[in-house]
Amino acid sequence: MSGCRSCRLHRPHAVPLYDDSGRRFLRAAAASLFVFFTLWKGTVMTAYAEAPDAVPASLVTVQSQYDFATTVARLRDTLAARGITLFADIDQSEAAAGVGMSLRPTRLFLFGNPKSGTPVMDAYPHAALELPLKAVVWEDADQHVHIDYQDVAKTLTPYGVDASQLAPLQPVAGLLRAVAGQ
């Protein structure tokens, strides 16, 4: 009898974690994962529900006086007229359509002047994460058009960029307000 102390016949209260088929273990693991992800999803969704409009302090939003297409054209024309390089114009709603999803009109622009940005990146290599500058033109559910951009000082100061190096980048705020008709 001493040789069978571990079998279920002699210890009916002992439930093995893993039986020959492995089903009990898999069921326990699946149940644990289900509970974990349910709680995690609830936490994430609760955090989102409490702050759906949470945005970084450096974000600036300007409402355009023009429709979406006109705002986009004004931005492209203004950049060209000022000799500012347009590195990319990404149509994010078109990209969404390419994967069978819909997105209100949204365009991301990457732009800048290498003469102004290069000294900043040379002195503060990590600041290259923020350069070139970016602006998003987007349309809300009420068909109002907005231009979002990051305040240059609030975005680059944490990298240690000093005021004298920020100065050549500061006019972008006025440029984007002018594009919006502000």
From TrEMBL:
<dbReference type="InterPro" id="IPR035923">
    <property type="entry name" value="TT1751-like_sf"/>
</dbReference>
<dbReference type="InterPro" id="IPR005180">
    <property type="entry name" value="DUF302"/>
</dbReference>
<dbReference type="Pfam" id="PF03625">
    <property type="entry name" value="DUF302"/>
</dbReference>
<feature type="domain" description="DUF302">
    <location>
        <begin position="90"/>
        <end position="151"/>
    </location>
</feature>
<protein>
    <submittedName>
        <fullName>Uncharacterized protein (DUF302 family)</fullName>
    </submittedName>
</protein>
